[in-house]
């Protein structure tokens, strides 16, 4: 386990990660994930299967690592000029992306792996929410409680995506945001 955590960024290690991630992505375009094996990935990436097992441990951890890389934020959430619309815009985009077939599979891959993959994804969402909170404070708005945003908005959306009992529609997401904002105002009174 320790070798996986101490991987240097850059050099040969980065080239291996890029090649293996690319191989997984290419295979996923043409095959169902249940048909993919570590030897297939290794061959396509030009590495030995032992390299993959040594670095990732097993196929589930590798798929989760690829999912985490795909979920990593590439930009800050949109700035709409007000905290309430910033949160709503972010949540609507989040729900749309995560409830898509690709998003649902990414969540499944992350959750079927080690806790570190799930923690990474949680940190991405928290970083976005923290950006929105700090932006609101900089504008002179009151801000909001991050944990409550996760509990009252994000968690129900993820639950419905993973268990498929209902689609987190835009109107449902807006109701979650409105309820959350109401609790934030009440907490300040």
Explain the overall architecture.
- By secondary structure, this protein is mostly helical.
- It has 10 helices and no strands.
- The protein starts with a helix and ends with a helix.
What is the total domain count?
2
What fraction strand?
A: under 5%
Q: Could you estimate the helical fraction of the residues in percent? A: over 70%
Q: In the CATH hierarchy, what is the superfamily of the largest domain?
A: Tetracycline Repressor, domain 2
List keywords for this structure.
189 residues; mainly alpha; Arc Repressor Mutant, subunit A; Tetracycline Repressor, domain 2; 2 domains; 10 helices; elongated
How is the secondary structure organized here?
Blueprint: H1 2-5, H2 11-30, H3 38-45, H4 49-56, H5 59-71, H6 83-99, H7 101-111, H8 115-138, H9 146-163, H10 170-188
Helix pairs in contact: 2-3, 3-4, 5-7, 5-8, 6-8, 6-9, 6-10, 9-10
Short description:
The protein has 189 residues and is mainly α. The chain contains 10 helices and no strands. It has helices at residues 2-5, 11-30, 38-45, 49-56, 59-71, 83-99, 101-111, 115-138, 146-163, 170-188.
